Amino acid sequence: QLRVFAVEPSASPVISGGSPAPHPIQGIGAGLIPANLDVALLDGTIQVEAEAAREMARRSAREEGMLVGISSGATLAAIAQKLPELPADAVVLGFNYDTGERYLSVEGFLPA
Predict the structure, then answer these.
(1) Domain of 88: which CATH number?
(2) What is the sign, positive or negative, of the torsion defined by CA atoms of 39, 44, 47, 48?
(3) For residue 12, what are the domain limits?
C-alpha cells in the first residue's frame, strides 16, 4: 500500500491550508501550491521545523557521508517523524534534491 506525503516548513504550511510566511528552508515552501501538485493524491503533509531540517542535513553528512541540502534535511526529518507510525517492514522512499555544498556559507547550516 503506497502512501504519499508532502513535506513543508512548519513556518509556511501552505499545502496544509496555512498562510505563506518567510522561512529558512531553501528549496521548499515557496508560498504557493504548484500547478503540478495534485493535493488530492496526498495522504497528508508533514511539517518540519527549520532547525530539524538543518540538523538532519548535518546528521546525514556526519553519519552517512551524504552532504545534502536543507530541503533534503527536511525530507529526512519528515521521515524520522513518520517512522514510529510505520510497520517494521515498511519501505520508505525520500528524495534528496541537491548537494549541501551550496549551503556551506549559509548561516546556521554548519554547527557553531
Answers:
(1) 3.40.50.1100
(2) negative
(3) 5-103
Say how many C-beta atoms besides its own lie within 10 A of residue 69's C-beta: 24
Neighbours of 5 (CB within 10 A): 17
Number of domains in the chain: 1
92 is a domain residue: yes
pLDDT at 78: 99
pLDDT in tens, 35-83: 999 999 999 999 999 999 999 999 999 999 999 999 999 999 999 999 9
Cβ-contact 74, 100 below 8 angstroms = no
Q: Is 31 left (phi over 0), alpha (psi -120 to 50) or beta?
A: left
- Whole-angstrom distance, CA of residue 87 vs CA of residue 81: 14
